[in-house]
Amino acid sequence: MIVTCPSCETRYRVDPEAIALRKGRVRCAACGHGWKADEEALTLEEPAKPTLRKEAVASDAAPRPVGGMEAVKPHEVVRKRAETRRQRSRQTVEGAGWAVVAACGVLLMGAAWLFRVDIVDTFPRTASAYAAIGVPVNPLGLEVRNLRVTPSEDEEGALIIEGVVVNTTGRDRATLPLRAVITGEDGAVLVEWVVMLDSLSLPARGEESFRSVLSDPPAGAAELEVLFAPEG
């Protein structure tokens, strides 16, 4: 009799007694699929032989040669499909892994940029690494912004120096005295003085305005600079 694998349609000539001994359970040698042969499917009588082997019977469902090439056997098609699925699964896993690595790299780079001041404050040697890539870091975490000089309306000849001190970090920062410096065209210091802030510290991203009056500006003044005075 002849049985056909329901998975890959490979046909086998089998001994009915061997099927009976196995209680109808059979397994395809081509694709490994196991199934229970239906008794009605075993009614096709053929000369029985005691060995299990593929039956080379031509049928409409059998693969046919195309373009002069040998037809692909059903079990080979099954194996190729399984290998293709394994390759796609492996590529999907690898792609997901690289995506995670890339995402982690982006997050680390973003954190290194956003918290660069805190990183340099904790690890001072990293300042040179930031400078090497063109990103100098201010370890104080404080910046002077919106600096402007205007003539005083109340005192003739006097200058008013105003600006804002900003905490650029994500945590509280102790404030420092400011040092105002006026230089001449040759870069020589003509006059300098200390400007104190009202607050002892600034909260994260906080700011404080300052104002100072220079009653007697020096002759030949060319540039004003406001710096943070060194601690101590």
TrEMBL record:
Superkingdom as given in the UniProt entry: Bacteria
The protein, known as: Zinc finger-domain-containing protein
Transmembrane domains' residue ranges: 95-115
Keywords (A to Z) from UniProt: Membrane, Transmembrane, Transmembrane helix
Disordered: annotated span: 53-89
Translocase in keyword set: no
Compositionally biased tracts (Basic and acidic residues): 72-86
